[in-house]
Amino acid sequence: MPEPVRRPLGIEGIEALYQECRTMVQDGRAGRGGRGLPVLVLVGTRGSGRTAALAWLGYLGSHRPHAFYDFASAGPRRPHEVAGRLAYGLSHRFARQPALLFPRLTLGLLVVDPGLSLDANDSRRAGHQLRRALQEARESTGAADRAADVAGLLQDLNLLQIPGIGLLAGLIRRPPRLPLSVARRTGFSWYAGPHAPVDELVALNQLSKSGTDVDRAAVDRRLCEAFLADLRGEYARRRRDRNCVVLLDNADAEGGRDFLDLLVRLRDESGAPDPLLAVATASDTGRIPGPFARGPAGVWIRSPEEASYADWEQSVPDPPPDASWHWYCVQLRDLTAAEVSQLGAGIADRLPEASPLAHRLTRGHAWSAGRLLEAAARIPGRGDSEALLRGILATPVPSDDGSEAEPLDRVILRDLLDGMNEEQRAALVVCSAAREFDAAWDADLLESFSLRTRNSLARETGTRLWLVGPVPQDAGARGGRGSGYLENSHPRPLSGRPVLHPWLRLLLLQELARSRSRWDETHEQLQVWHMLYGHPLDVRYHALALGQLDDVVDHLARSLTELPDTDAWLYELYAVTAAPLRTPVLPERTATLRVDRVAEELAPRSFAERRALTMLVAALWLAGDARNRLPAARPELNDTIGSMFQSLAMHSDPRRVGLRHEAAKYI
């Protein structure tokens, strides 16, 4: 038996938008302002759950006409072929629902079948050939039915391959069977144009045998027009309580845009709403021609909580400059801590730290959190469980092909960057050293890579939605998300430019750290560049990444008295101590036991002269890694950080009260 479809977490807003659009169109009319329906595109990073969300929406609509198509599961198909396959799915009979018929499209698919040649010089003979072809298709429907029961349906839905569009035309009539009278009356009359219907159909037959792009496009256009005309006609003929739905996975794969672009163009040109709700998914926003917006993604994107039909309708400019207004992108968000806890409910009693750790590490990236929880489930619930959790990313994972096991972090990283070539992946590893993504280009970190990689990497990373806004650096950042209470307090704040998703960056930094020389060279180059262009916070940030703890403590000791107030100094403290640590965690040793040694080994002079400040910097630096924050109820290092703030306040008259207030945040 197939596994039951499970409702993905965090898609309530998407589900509400889907239901709103499904129920909006009746009797061929759409929308409150005549805009019709948008093409809904669910976007998200690889592993964000797009396909699972699409499957759930299909389940919700499974009692009304719907069809599913995956553009990535087979070779590219022409738009009219996609329309035919969708029509097959939509034509199935559902309980207490009048079945959808596709007489115009069925006739058109029969006419463009490669095995049919209509006489272009004799209309009477062409009409006879067409009637005979219709009769043969009807008589062969029984055989097509039996074939479809075994393999036909699977073949034409991208799992196998059925030869011949004529057979597909037969499949579209099963179920329901399409009476010849309907095909003749409705189909023939619709194809009437400047010439008689039979002459127009002969011309379509001739176009289908041409190899030119113009003629191929004309065939696709005519048959997709027939597809939409059939849907409008069916909804005008019989009242229905829901729109029909097509679910299009991986619309950014080859062939996806061809079909959707034509669908949008036909809607835009006709101005006539249709009862077809198209819901697509994409991981590359560069392949989605939605309304342009500033930012690395390049298109206007809404969160699930913001999305609604009214929001889309209000966003349409008047008059629209182009057809991009038809698209409506909604981004699947990362899961909350509570939602990740639901994923890990099965191991919560044995390993209560597993779910909070998975959320803090992945920032709620759905697939990655699931992989970490799977790895945690294999950890025995004994005294060493916390050490194993701290080292969870180094857990060996057996490969599918039987080769040597790899660390979990490498397995996950390879999957997240699927679709990027080896040089792009290597370049991203180098870029991860920079706090802000653009700084990697400004500092010429990619000079040794090919021009193609340098030109494409930023776009690839941005349109794949791996670039996000920076997390505010403050006490809350050590809990996962900064609250922003120190924003606008520093005279020279960070620029706020996009950063790599923290989870992806953590994995990339681990790759970079596997080579000590590459780590040092990259951070030194960034440090020099920031020094040249006057970015003192980033200079100290990279100094700390290089282990120059003495220099950092000296700088913070001076700025404690030089900066205008406590908030400005705290902003600087947190901005600098957000630096990555080459060896962020030692599974066999807690961070509390490690902090003294880190402070004493890396800053012997400061440790002797400014013990409280040195310990505070070292503790905040270690606390920047989620694995050093067990247990979740009272995160590791909180006592140390709070005590060092208190000790510093006792010896810092100008900052005493503010530092005590900050210490209270760690109690």
Helix/strand layout:
Blueprint: H1 12-22, E1 39-43, H2 50-60, E2 66-70, H3 79-90, H4 103-111, H5 123-139, H6 141-156, H7 165-172, H8 180-190, H9 197-208, H10 213-237, E3 244-249, H11 256-270, E4 276-282, E5 301-302, H12 309-315, E6 327-331, H13 337-343, H14 354-362, H15 366-377, H16 385-390, E7 396-397, E8 406-407, H17 408-416, H18 422-431, H19 437-442, H20 451-463, E9 467-468, E10 499-500, H21 502-513, H22 516-532, H23 536-545, H24 549-562, H25 566-577, H26 591-602, H27 604-609, H28 611-623, H29 638-650, H30 656-664
Helix pairs in contact: 3-7, 3-10, 3-11, 4-7, 4-8, 4-10, 6-7, 13-14, 14-15, 17-21, 18-20, 22-23, 23-24, 23-25, 24-25, 24-28, 26-28, 28-29, 29-30
Question: What do you see in this structure?
Answer:
- The two termini are 52 Å apart.
- Strand 3, helix 11 (256-270) and strand 4 form a beta-alpha-beta unit.
- Helix content is 52%, strand content 6%.
- 46% of the residues are buried.
- The protein is mainly alpha-helical and 667 residues long.
Taking the alpha carbons of the first and last residues, their distance comes to 52 Å
Tally of DSSP helical segments: 30
Shape: elongated
Order of strands, main sheet, comes to 2-3-4-1-6-5
Strand tally, please? 10
Largest sheet: 6 strands, parallel
Structural class given helices, strands, pairing? mainly alpha
Q: Name the beta content range.
A: 5-15%
State the helical fraction.
Answer: 40-55%
Uncertain residue segments: 26-32, 142-167, 173-180
Using only C-alpha atoms, the radius of gyration works out to 31 Å
